[in-house]
Amino acid sequence: MRYDLTSLDLFITVAQERNLTRAAGIKHLAVSAISKRISELEAQIGSPLLIRNARGVELTPAGQSLLYYARQLKQTMAQLDNELSEFAAGVKGHIRIHAITSALSQFLPQDMAGFAQLYPQIKFDIEEGIGSAVVRAVADDHADLGIISSHTAPLGLETLPYRHDELVLVVPTEHDLAKRRTVHFSEVLAYEFVGPHLDSTLYGLLTEQAKTIGQPLKLHIRISSFDCMCRMVANGLGITVLPRSAVEPYVRSHRLKRVTLSEPWAHRSLLLVFKKYEIASPTLKTFIDHLRAPSQP
């Protein structure tokens, strides 16, 4: 069936207002004109969409189904208009990215800098979030691309390997463990932690490993920023576990020491997550291919 977009837009307004008169006022049309559009939709579908009563209208099951898909279509058309207007203005695309802190603090800025040199007119919207929130954003079409840890379930979305990082123990230079080259996580659990946010993938990993060992994770402070975590550790408020390269900018200035964790789980993969590569926009495919290029570290 071919649907008239104007009729679908009017139907959405009627469904939201539950009243033909109010919908007509919003759209600056006569009630009879809107009623005619709804009747034409009902004839096309072959089923009533509205139940009319003294107070207004209610949706039939067919009306509820049409409302769901009409809203999706309206959102898609708005995105289409937005992206095509960017092309007309000389901008060659728009990519929305949600990523975990590890990716944003270590790899993505440098990778985007290289991409921007090749495609300077592509625009980006970037948001930081925990792994599960990143997956939800991609699944709900709030993001085109996500970057998560391999410890986060992708919930049916497609994934591709992106980077590898290593989690290390971070302590002040005067700490008891600062002179060690490697340390077992069981030894680390004797000390108080400056930990990440409760919902973060890193927090889930640390608490899971502590539970496996049978010792509690002694959380003194919880905070989401890697920068703030390093500052807290530098001021003697606890120790922490962070990605190795994310700590690099603070090692000298904050007098910190990175100690290798001997457990295999300290080495993890970061993944690109998206709906389907085959149906992705050319702009998104180009960016994914760039992130996956062999020249990337």
Automatic annotation (TrEMBL):
Superkingdom assignment: Bacteria
Keywords: DNA-binding, Transcription, Transcription regulation
Any single Pfam family the record assigns to this protein: HTH_1
The HTH lysR-type domain, residue ranges: 1-60
InterPro entries (UniProt xref): HTH-type_LysR_regulators (IPR050950), LysR_HTH_N (IPR000847), LysR_subst-bd (IPR005119), WH-like_DNA-bd_sf (IPR036388), WH_DNA-bd_sf (IPR036390)
First and last residue of the signal peptide: none
Family membership noted in the UniProt record: Belongs to the LysR transcriptional regulatory family.
Name listed for the protein in its UniProt record: LysR family transcriptional regulator
